[in-house]
UniProtKB/TrEMBL annotation:
Pfam families: Methyltransf_23. GO terms for molecular function: glycosyltransferase activity; methyltransferase activity. The keyword Hydrolase does not apply. InterPro entries: Glyco_trans_9, SAM-dependent_MTases_sf. The lineage of its organism: Bacteria, Pseudomonadati, Thermodesulfobacteriota, Thermodesulfobacteria, Thermodesulfobacteriales. Keywords: Methyltransferase, Transferase. It comes from the Bacteria. PANTHER family: METHYLTRANSFERASE TYPE 11, TRANS-ACONITATE 2-METHYLTRANSFERASE-RELATED. GO terms for biological process: methylation. This is Methyltransferase domain-containing protein. It comes from Thermodesulfobacterium geofontis.
Length: 713
């Protein structure tokens, strides 16, 4: 930011304000705002070096004046309000001044906690009177701004860190509401009383704009419940009608009524739910606590919606030739490079989101907006009985997270009927894509030798070879054995194998194709007498997350084991795998199927350790499959870089090989970064040094997975 002095008397309109300056008067400009001045006006100013008040660093503000220097688009201005409100709440006797663009001024001008709204550029006389400054200009494309959620960014800049309410304050112009309300009521009447869905598919950058085709597909899902309306601001796009006609979209286009942001706010307030790509509409809907779905594509939606309790942000799951979503690009000129490469206009990351997913996200957003709902009275594992907060809503299930042990679980909880899953002719169960689950793949079997070879190449089983080799031999019982592939592996390592499985079809395959001792049972009480143990080893791979009584399930396993020395070996999806550590745990990961009715619980390292100790195991060892190259690339996307050679030529290099090679020590030694979390639990006493065995298992399997056996001739 810089201060410029007028060379002469000036009168001009700029950035939504009328300025009238005497010669020698000064204005403070954000540098990017000064760049927008017409050239003839720039020549009438000259830069002047002046002093500034100190930047605010959390001092007591009572009796002081703090000036928040902002330019801000509408969405940014809204995101400031939780921090501004919190400043005034903590320091009621401070004077809070805020500069803002003329375009965004309407969303702030009626807020009682702002004592003075100033234009951008700011008359320097106000700057000099302030005791402290907060600079929130010139921040786009800086890491501080780009890597924090917008509301959190302003909380951080204002040194308040937390606010009582972290949704924006939305000032509704009741006169505008009265103007629009008869139109919305008529739409409801003509639709037979359906709810109104406000659909805002346009964004400030074309690469974040939703393809109109998506709205047409969404209409087929919502037609029994909702009538969609489009409310675009006048400066956003004049082609809305053309898009509606081209794609035969029946939505009511109210864009001609949206004179300014006050009308958009009124439209959102009158709607029952919102689907948007536009972040200003998101912040308005979030502030009004409307059920809202955000499709942000190139941008991590959590950076825009994390603090809004009624918003579902749908992350894209797209890996293309030039990018992996989200690419993080907020604004670019023209379509995204990936779209241009494919000969398309709209960003493929947004085009790839199915309308079905958007519809079920909308249903989940409706659940988020409900204030009264059933809550668990205690944790399924540690039996904590205090308040258990809601973590997310996905596929019609509310997921809670125990503050004591960290378990995530739905309430109410209901296990899946696996015979129906195996036999289902349907492709989907809500968000759940049955073709993407293991159910169908498990039925694609070969001969015994091929099956063993195939499954030992799967990392979560490769890592178990050194452990199976060291485990005392005897009877082994595999729970949820599917078609028997692990039983074949265990038999190869010298165990006498038995198995139980909930699916009749899988049991039949295991018996018919491999002659295995497998029974159909959903609970331990259903086991035939010859399957009730005791066993030297019990295994259960990717089973724990499917059961509705995990503690009872683990107690049952403990009772199946030999009383003197028994071992339980298991795996489940990891909460803190490398991807989650690199990106943070992303909610609404619809493509992973890590949600009900498929998965009922999510486990952290300490949650699993605690549960196993609670049921009586004396020794517990937690580890994961090794961190491998593909796992790393799930968490980070290495950038390409260009070198300019001495002869003038340029050379573009992919940094991935260099990065992956430098991470080699992690592949051999990472205990907890892999994609499946495993546990080895001991009943009784074991004299084996299992820490050393597991360390070697990770190292051996990493070498084998990444570089192979080295047997090529």
């Amino acid at each position: 930011m810089k201060v410029y002095v007028a060379r002469t008397d000036l009168k001009f309109n700029f950035n939504g304000y009328n300025f009238e300056l005497k010669k020698g008067e000064k204005l403070l400009f954000a540098e990017d705002v000064f760049a927008l001045l017409p050239q003839n006006l720039k020549t009438l100013f000259k830069e002047e070096k002046v002093g500034f008040p100190p930047f605010y660093r959390g001092e007591n503000l009572n009796g002081k004046t703090i000036l928040v220097i902002a330019q801000a688009a509408i969405g940014d201005a809204l995101c400031m309000t939780p921090a501004l409100r919190e400043l005034k709440r903590r320091y009621p006797n401070c004077r809070l001044w805020v500069s803002i663009s003329g375009r965004a001024r309407p969303v702030l001008e009626k807020l009682s906690y702002i004592d003075k709204l100033l234009p951008m550029p700011i008359p320097y006389k106000y700057v000099s009177k302030a005791d402290y400054l907060v600079k929130v200009i010139e921040m786009v494309n800086t890491p501080q701004f780009d890597e924090l959620n917008l509301v959190e960014y302003y909380l951080w800049k204002c040194y308040v860190y937390h606010a009582e309410d972290e949704t924006p304050d939305i000032v509704i112009d009741e006169a505008v509401v009265s103007e629009l309300k008869p139109i919305f009521e008529e739409i409801r009447r003509l639709s037979g009383g359906k709810k109104i869905l406000l659909f805002h598919y346009l964004a400030s950058s074309v690469h974040r704009t939703l393809p109109p085709r998506l709205l047409k597909e969404i209409e087929d899902y919502i037609k029994e419940e909702y009538v969609p309306v489009i409310c675009s601001l006048p400066d956003e796009d004049i082609t809305v009608d053309v898009a509606l006609e081209t794609y035969d979209i029946t939505s009511a286009n109210l864009s001609s009524l949206m004179k300014d942001v006050r009308y958009l706010i009124a439209g959102v307030s009158l709607a029952d739910a919102v689907i948007t790509a536009d972040t200003a509409t998101l912040h308005i809907a979030g502030g009004l606590k409307k059920p809202t779905v955000l499709l942000s594509g190139p941008i991590n939606g959590e950076l825009r919606a994390r603090t809004y309790p009624t918003v579902i942000s749908i992350p894209s799951n797209y890996r293309g030739q030039t990018c992996v979503s989200p690419c993080g690009k907020h604004a670019i000129d023209g379509p995204c490079p990936e779209a241009e490469l494919k000969g398309e206009f709209y960003s493929p990351c947004l085009s790839s989101v199915p309308a079905r997913v958007v519809y079920y996200a909308l249903k989940d957003a409706e659940l988020l907006a409900e204030k009264d709902y059933a809550k668990p009275d205690k944790c399924l594992v540690c039996e904590y009985k205090g308040e258990i907060p809601l973590f997310e809503v996905i596929n019609g299930a509310r997921i809670f997270e125990c503050p004591s042990c960290g378990l995530q679980f739905p309430y109410p909880i209901k296990a899946e009927d696996y015979d129906k899953v195996y036999d289902s002719k349907n492709k989907y169960m809500g968000l759940l894509n049955l073709e993407a689950t293991a159910y169908e793949a498990y039925k694609q079997i070969s001969d015994e030798k091929t099956e063993i070879k195939k499954w030992l190449k799967v990392p979560r089983f490769t890592v178990l070879q050194a452990i199976l080799d060291r485990l005392p031999k005897g009877k082994l019982f595999d729970i949820g054995c599917s078609t028997g592939f692990f039983l074949l592996i265990a038999k190869k390592f010298g165990f006498e194998v038995y198995g139980m499985e909930a699916s009749s079809e899988a049991v039949e395959i295991a018996k018919r194709n491999f002659g295995l001792k497998v029974c159909k049972a959903l609970t331990f009480e259903e086991l035939p007498p010859e399957f009730r143990g005791p066993y030297k080893v019990v295994t259960a791979f990717e089973v724990l997350e499917h059961v509705d009584d995990p503690l009872g399930f683990l107690k049952g396993i403990y009772n199946l084991l030999s009383s003197d020395e028994g071992y339980y070996l298991m795996s489940c999806p990891p909460f803190y795998k490398f991807e989650n550590l690199a990106k943070g745990y992303r909610k609404f990961k619809w493509w992973y199927n890590d949600f009900p009715p498929h998965h009922l619980t999510r486990w952290k390292l300490w949650t699993l350790f605690y549960a196993l100790k609670k049921v009586g195991f004396s020794q517990v060892y937690i580890f994961t499959e090794p961190l491998i190259l593909g796992t790393v690339l799930e968490g980070i996307t290495p950038l390409s870089f260009t070198l300019k050679l001495e002869d003038g030529r340029t050379l573009t290099l992919n940094s991935a090989p260099i990065l992956l090679e430098n991470l080699k020590p992690l592949y051999l030694n990472s205990r907890y970064l892999g994609n499946f979390m495993c546990a080895l639990a001991v009943k009784g006493e074991s004299k084996i040094d299992w820490e050393r065995v597991i360390e070697r298992a990770i190292r051996f399997s990493a070498v084998e997975i990444i570089w192979g056996e080295g047997d090529k001739v």
